[in-house]
Design brief:
The structure holds two protein chains of two kinds. Chain A is mostly helical. Chain A has one domain (about 15-340). Chain A has helices at about 1-10, 15-30, 35-55, 55-60, 70-85, 90-120, 125-145, 195-210, 215-225, 225-230, 235-260, 270-285, 295-320, 325-345, and strands at about 165-170, 185, 190, 265. Chain A has a two-stranded antiparallel ribbon. Chain A has a two-stranded antiparallel ribbon with strand order 2-3. In chain A, helix 3 (about 35-55) packs parallel to helix 8, helix 5 crosses helix 11 (about 235-260) and helix 12 crosses helix 13. The longest helix of chain A has 29 residues, at about 90-120. Helices cover about 70% and strands about 5% of the residues of chain B. A two-stranded antiparallel sheet of chain B has the order 1-4. A two-stranded antiparallel sheet of chain B has the order 2-3. In chain B, a hairpin with a 2-residue loop joins strand 2 and strand 3 (about 190-195). In chain B, helix 1 (about 1-30) packs across helix 12. Classes of the chains: A mainly alpha, B mainly alpha. Chains A and B meet through helix 6, helix 7 and helix 14 of A and helix 6, helix 13 and helix 14 of B.
């Protein structure tokens, strides 16, 4: 019984409430005319779409940099990779992998500078990261307008320059992962094998990395910087590595998202994508200084499940669209819960 | 050495102000706007925004950083205005009514905000920011679903056609500029909303007076060092809550002043940018996370809005696209906040490192005490 109690305490009431709420939604779904198989398919799809961006939170949480509110830098690197891949007319799997390869140098450069900055402001990372992210997005807004892209599918038709706000990847690498070895059962259920395999691959690599020498050192830095320094770990270097990995995963994450979603969204589109990723890992049970693969898995499924199920079920139930309000309250409530909880734990 | 150091301290302290003055001065000629037009715009915007920015002062004194949670007060003010329009109370009486409705709500929200921040000491800013988003969800729920269904709305013209929920934009015709227009002073071609400025001046007097009271002194003590204040018998948590409540109430009044000047209310997102603009303004004026004065507020509002006035047109002229100017001003707004926070955090760490070096005594000497080595030591030593 005591075990059960501590388990509940560790897991946290908000997660349990969200879990049961989600289960209730699934149970209600057939009664209000929402197809269960289609819903499951949606949840799986959206899980794959978002999981890598959530995974990107892990390294920085582990190294003690807190929640990566500056994930936008990684997302922008991914957007640069994706747009360059279209500009070079890369199609199919080559286009998708090309986008990732092209995004890599950007993510490393952005991540490196971002890490330099965060190392100078230890203790204030989260607020600063948020504003660095915002201002960088605004800077890139200007860049999207003036960079010399000229692929006609990407630029505004009448002006011949300046990228569109949404660019379709339909003729390039739409659903290239989703359709890879996809298993179709019935009319409504599709198991996106390729997408989930890709996510699993990255999660596995991250799992391996956290158990490597560097990964262990990184975790040590996050748990106790003074102790890590005393045992000869270069704190700033470990933090830099974690930030670069996080930024890189952000870039990969948005490219995976785009191939499934079908559109590259530019300009201010990346900024609302950061908070859901933060909220998801926290719903999964991470705190602001500990996170694991299980947190990523559970969190993304719960959060995306909620996002998929609330519009369809609640709307048919109440005849009104409350999903947006629920999304705002749940995701921010979760972040708030995590921010106010750590003190109790450290006591 | 010392003079150079002084100069570098001066630049790092006022870096943001200096950058801003330079950017704005460069942008004025290409914008093609007359100085007179810019001045009139600044006067209008000083009246519109100063009150909101002044609401940030007390939490800074209490060591809670920039109060991003002020958005809570802004939402309370909006609820007040919705009811004022609903009951058809016009002119300045409508504003007073809105304030009376907003007051208890903002006290309650401020109390909640204070409690939450007390549980997240050292992370007040990011917590306040997220709390504003969270309460925004509740605000949306209240305005979109409760008003008109649970709480009856008499004025059907402000309710969505489905029968409940408030329309996306609310016309504040009945209270538009009712505070500004009580006495509109016209001096040398400029129109100055006298009463608005008197209200702002009264708030400044209040802030100055408040700092001298027992509570104000306690607040500063808490801001200096919570542990010491606690030891001296000051109720730290309570003092912090009071600071946030006052700030939230002022933000509520500030948002009402802001909206009466604008003349219409974007029901669901008018408050989105409130905290952002107010914080950007006070930082542009040379304030930091721990230090701010009334002068910072007015200098900041003037500089920030001077740039907001000129940048879209300057962008249009220089790059052939007004959008670039628009993005540029947001980039600058966010960038200013980021730079100020970075400079502040960096300075704090540098000061701590220097203090440590001076403790270490003579063998290191003052030669190592400046610049880069000390910063590196913060992480390594």
């Amino acid at each position: 019984m005591r075990n059960f109690k501590t388990f509940i305490q560790d897991f946290g009431w908000p997660r349990i409430i969200i879990f049961f709420f989600l289960v209730a939604l699934f149970i209600m779904a057939p009664f209000v005319g929402v197809r269960l198989d289609a819903s499951f398919s949606d949840v799986l799809n959206r899980f794959g779409q978002n999981a890598i961006m959530v995974l990107a939170m892990v390294p920085m949480i582990q190294s003690g940099c807190g929640l990566n509110f500056g994930l936008a830098l990684g997302l922008v690197a991914g957007l640069l990779g994706a747009t360059l891949s279209l500009q070079l007319e890369l199609h199919g799997m080559l286009g998708f992998l090309g986008a990732i390869v092209l995004a890599t140098p950007f993510s490393i450069i952005f991540g490196w500078f971002y890490a330099k900055l965060l190392n100078k402001v230890k203790g204030e990372e989260m607020t600063i990261a948020m504003y660095v992210g915002f201002s960088f997005i605004m800077f890139m807004c200007i860049m999207w307008l003036i960079l010399p892209y000229n692929n006609p599918t990407m630029v505004w038709g009448y002006a011949g320059k300046g990228l569109r706000t949404t660019i379709s990847v339909e003729n390039y690498w739409l659903k290239i992962l989703n359709n890879f070895l996809a298993i179709k059962i019935g009319q409504f259920f599709v198991f996106p094998t390729g997408l989930l395999l890709f996510v699993a691959l990255f999660a596995f690599l991250m799992w391996l990395f956290l158990r490597s020498k560097t990964g262990t050192a990184m975790t040590a830095v996050g748990s106790n910087p003074d102790f890590a320094r005393a045992s000869g770990v270069d704190v700033d270097k470990m933090r830099t590595i974690s930030v670069i990995i996080s930024t890189f995963l952000g870039a990969v994450g948005i490219i995976v998202y785009e191939q499934s979603f079908g559109f590259i969204q530019l300009y201010t589109a990346p900024s609302p994508m950061v908070f859901p990723a933060v909220a998801a890992i926290l719903i999964g049970g991470a705190s602001i200084n500990k996170a694991s693969m299980v947190n990523v898995l559970v969190g993304t499924i719960l959060f995306q499940g909620l996002l998929t199920m609330t519009p369809s079920v609640i709307n048919s139930l109440l005849q009104t669209d409350m999903s947006e309000v629920i999304r705002i309250i749940v995701s921010n409530g979760m972040i708030l819960y995590a921010l106010t909880r750590k003190i109790k734990v450290s006591k | 050495m010392s003079a150079r150091k002084k100069l570098s301290t001066f630049f790092s302290r006022y870096a943001v102000v200096i950058i801003f003055v330079i950017i704005t001065l460069i942008a004025i000629p290409p914008s093609g706007l007359s100085i007179k037009y810019i001045l009139q715009e600044i006067i209008t915007r000083l009246g519109r925004n100063s009150f909101l920015v002044l609401a940030l002062l007390l939490p800074i004194y209490a060591g809670m950083g920039l109060n991003f949670g002020m958005t809570l007060g802004a939402m309370a003010g909006q609820v007040g205005l919705i009811f004022a329009v609903n009951y058809g109370i016009s002119n300045w009486q409508g504003l007073v009514f809105a304030l009376l409705v907003g007051l208890p709500i903002s006290v309650l929200l401020g109390y909640v905000c204070g409690l939450v921040m007390n549980r997240a000491k050292g992370r007040e800013m990011v917590t306040g920011y997220i709390l504003a988003f969270f309460i925004n969800g509740i605000y949306q729920f209240f305005v979109m679903y409760m008003l008109g269904s649970v709480i009856p709305m008499g004025n059907k013209s402000i309710v969505l056609s489905r029968g409940y929920g408030i329309r996306n934009t609310l016309n504040l015709e009945s209270v538009r500029q009712s505070l500004d227009n009580i006495v509109m002073l016209r001096v040398g071609g400029f129109s100055i909303p006298l009463v608005t400025f008197i209200v702002i001046a009264l708030l400044c007097v209040f802030v100055v007076w408040f700092k001298k009271t027992k509570l104000g002194q306690d607040m500063r003590a808490v801001g200096q060092d919570m542990a010491v204040a606690e030891a001296a018998g000051i109720p730290v948590e309570k003092t912090r809550i009071v600071a946030i409540i006052i700030s939230t109430v002022l933000a509520c009044a500030g948002q009402i002043i802001f909206l009466q000047n604008m003349g219409n209310l974007a029901t669901y997102n008018a408050h989105d940018q409130t905290g952002f603009f107010a914080v950007a303004a006070i930082l542009v004026g040379g304030a930091s996370v721990t230090h701010a004065s009334i002068a910072n507020v007015f200098l900041g509002v003037t500089l920030l809005h001077a740039m907001f006035v000129v940048s879209p047109l300057a962008g249009q002229k220089l790059f052939g696209s007004a959008m670039i100017g628009e993005y540029f001003r947001q980039f600058i707004g966010y960038g200013v906040i980021a730079i100020s926070l970075v400079l502040y955090a960096w300075r704090t760490r540098k000061a701590a490192a220097e203090a440590r070096l001076s403790l270490r005594g003579a063998q290191n000497g003052p030669g190592k005490g400046n610049g880069k080595p000390a910063v590196g030591n913060g992480g390594q030593a």
